[in-house]
Amino acid sequence: MCELVPPNSAGDAIIPDLGPPSSNNRNGSGAGSGLSRKQLKQRSKRSAKLARRQMVEKGDEGDGTTAEADQDSTQSNQTSTSRLGKSEVLSHLLKQQTLLLVWTLAADGAILNSNSSPSLMIHDYAQSLASFLLSTTNQEDSELPSLAFLNQTSPALSWRWVHTLDFCLLYSARIRRITPKLSDSLRCLTASMVTAIACIVRRWCRRQSLSSASKVPPRAPRIVVRAAGILTAFLYQNLERQRFHSSADNHPLRIDDTWIRATLNDFSEVTAPTGMENPLMAFVDDLCDLVEKASVEVEANKSKWIWAAACLNSLAELQCLNVCERLESSSVLADAVHSLKSWAHKPTVLDDSLMNLPSPGTAAYPCVKSWKCLPIERIYAQDGGFG
To answer: Compositional bias (Low complexity) at which positions (predicted)?
Structure first.
């Protein structure tokens, strides 16, 4: 599977292009050959919808709304050209399922043989994964960083990718406990995952820091809150392991993400995005800067920063030195963070902004909706409509 579905390969290299039916089959006697009844029904619905749309456009001509119709048509064409083809959609879904399988097998293998380094096959797959997750594009929107695997997919596919990384990074908390020694063998896989998730949070926080001081920051997109929650729970689990390690006696808990840079440096032709050399420390600094700036008027825009304060509060409860030092240096930040004390233990009074945060201790979400993704069938139907 690692060789058949490398993450950094193009979609049509994994699955041949599933183009639209030829003109001979579209109107001839062989129309729809090889399609199931369900596929034929879906094609019929799409054809009827397209015909109705064309009739509406013809009816609007000359009635003073031509300019508006042209604008809508342009926007529709832009959306259509940016949508993925069937091969790309299927390849993304296949890559996600392959990653889940490889991660599970690698985690189980690490547990069975904790003294062995990752096999060459897993190392090669990890390098391909890092190249895929950290490759950038010139396109970016208002919510996401310029990571290709997010910007060149639909929102539903982007959410499913974050969902997949969520499963892997919090595997130890939910499914099988992995000791620090055992987790070392999985770092070749987790390094790029952590960096990619941190990029999502950093991109949005930096956009808010560049906005004017008088402008109230907008509500954070749920994918940003979800990414922050994943990293917080991942950090929480790692700091908790430090607490019970013999070498941690009488030593403060401090974030150490040097292993991420070292791991990525071992991969050829893989570089971390600018400013992501220490992604976990950058993540904490970004949250602190956001809360400190946005929490000046506490009640006026609380929903804009409460999720970030909750993440910092979880790390402060473990006496994480990186967070505690920032709290001591800013009373505004400290008041905002301490107001979220024990937030994860009060699910009945959670703010809407906190519903996409997993509990740092158990990695469980407060409701099923926070964990669910759009079904694969609907993603394929919506995003795979173009050949």
So the answer is: 72-82
pLDDT at 214: 53
Q: What is the per-residue pLDDT across 337-359, written as a single tens digit (0 to 9) for each? A: 888 887 766 654 556 778 889 99
Tokens of 289: 């800067």
For every residue of 358-383, DSSP letters joined together read PPTTT---SSHHHH----HHHHHHHH
**pLDDT computed for residue 136 by the predictor:** 86
The Cβ of residue 291 has, within 10 Å, a number of other Cβ atoms equal to 28
CB 354: neighbour CB atoms within 10 A? 23
Given a cut of 70, whether residue 24 has pLDDT beyond it is no
Q: What is the CA radius of gyration of the chain?
A: 24
Asked if 190 and 169 touch (Cβ cutoff 8 Å), the reply is yes
CB 338 within 8 A of CB 213: no
- Answer whether 318's CB lies under 8 Å from 190's CB: no
Q: What secondary structure does DSSP assign to 252-282, as a single string? A: -B----HHHHHHHHTSTT--PPTT-SSHHHH
* CA 161 – CA 299 distance, rounded (Å): 34
Q: Provide the residue ranges of all domains of the chain, joining segments of one domain with +.
A: 43-82, 86-382
Angstrom distance (rounded) from CA 69 to CA 167: 44
* Buried-exposed string 171-192: b where 16+ CB fall within 10 A, e elsewhere: bbbeeeebeeebbebbbbbbbb
- E strand spans, the chain: none
Q: What is the 3-state secondary structure (H, E, C) of 152-166?
A: CCCHHHHHHHHHHHH
pTM over 0.90: no
SS3 content of the chain, % helix, strand, coil (to 5): 65, 0, 35
Contact assessment for residue 217 and residue 305, using Cβ atoms and an 8 Å cutoff: yes
| Helices H / strands E in the chain, number of each | 19, 0
